[in-house]
Known about the structure:
The chain is α/β, with parallel strands linked by helices. The protein is about 35% helix and about 25% strand.
Amino acid sequence: MQPVNIGLLGLGTVGAGVVDLLSRNRSEITRRAGRDIRVTRAAVRNPDSPRDCDTTGIDIGTDCHAIVNDPDIDVVLELIGGEHEARDLVMAAIASGKHVVTANKHLIALHGNEIFAAADAAGVVVSFEAAVAGGIPIIKAIRESLAANHIEWVAGIINGTGNFILSQMMFEGVSFEEALADAQRRGFAEADPTFDVEGIDAAHKLAIIGSIAFGIPLSFDRIYTQGIRGIASDDIEYAAELGYRIKHLGIARRQETGVELRVHPTLVSEKALLASVEGEKNAIMVYGDAVGPTVYYGSGAGAGPTASSVVADLIDTVRMMSVDPKGRVPHLAFQPDQITHEPILTEPDFECGHYFRVQVADQIGVMAEITRALAEQQIGIEAILQKDPPTAEDDARVMIVTKPARERRLMKVLDHIRSLPYTREGLVHMRVAQFED
Length: 437
Ligand SMILES: NC(=O)C1=CN([C@@H]2O[C@H](COP(=O)(O)OP(=O)(O)OC[C@H]3O[C@@H](n4cnc5c(N)ncnc54)[C@H](O)[C@@H]3O)[C@@H](O)[C@H]2O)C=CC1
Ligand SMILES: N[C@@H](CC=O)C(=O)O
Ligand code: NA
């Protein structure tokens, strides 16, 4: 059989990982794919930079379009990252009848609807397993292995850099900035690390998860997104005393009236599986009506893990080259004409537990007023903690975890508490996740 020629766009962390893996496991990969898969051309910004892989036999240049238009290239592997240039290259590859593999969640989250429509029309496949949770085969799990289920919710740690920073801060006493610099050195962080710390990267991934779980279009701009920068070490401590860990989660959840798509710091019971996921590791729970809860854990970033998914996509691509396009796994899990536009809910309609911290004058009746306000909105209390603040001797800090409640009700309570004469500035609110795992 003829070898399959890969045109590689980008030879950075992931690109080098792919070249290395294809060479290291060449014989097993060929036995699985049925054909030899080889990178024949690559484009990079600076061809003279040193590489973390052996590039013997690869023609390295700077012109991505020359690769996309090369008739000898069978599959384009997009690993340059970013949005517009990657979109143009992928659309050009599709137009020239080439299959595409990408690790670019930014690209898929923002342009996937257009890209998949073009790919379906051209009879080619765009694969993107590495785009969500790096090496964890979560796309395949949701799209294929759980295809019999009505997916009720998906919740996970889907940004390795953010989880690494939170773990370093909690266990190593490292500052936020130091931990981020370390994540960058280790190759986990995005080229623009604000994508990691502001929750944008997680929102890109959640857009993809939500779409393949619920059969809705990719809806990145409708995702509620909050990053990890605002998490105070005091709240990490208080949460621990209350029996919780603060994790940065992406949550896609069905309600009767629509779907919640949200990314934010979340209190997770220390007994929950997700609470024990540390460092750059990712973990995703998927709840299907037939299967119940399932968990997928592993490395969400780094050269080897990400290359593992990219190469698996290349193998899949090679295998399905000979399959009738109508018989292939649909890009977004559901047949393209079965994608529906369900309402995507906004904050007032989110339903979950809540944590809040409020500093008040330490007077008789204050706690009673706070609990009365909660009761008036029919919000149950899960746990209460009271502490002296680090300064302001006559004040008290009150931390409350509520039972699940519609966020619109909780906001009324918090507005009321803020308006009380003895309430100080700086009320903190975070959401709490309840999982069955
Ligand atoms: N690093 C990781 O752990 C993971 C990365 N990804 C995604 O994989 C993709 C690649 O990420 P990394 O390898 O980490 O990036 P990187 O910054 O290490 O490498 C990017 C490569 O693309 C080349 N490049 C960029 N723009 C180019 C252009 N216009 N023309 C020619 N070459 C160009 C650069 O020279 C470099 O070789 C991104 O979409 C990223 O989000 C996905 C999962 C994990
Ligand atoms: N920057 C991302 C890389 C993988 O997607 C992360 O930290 O998770
Ligand atoms: Na993956």
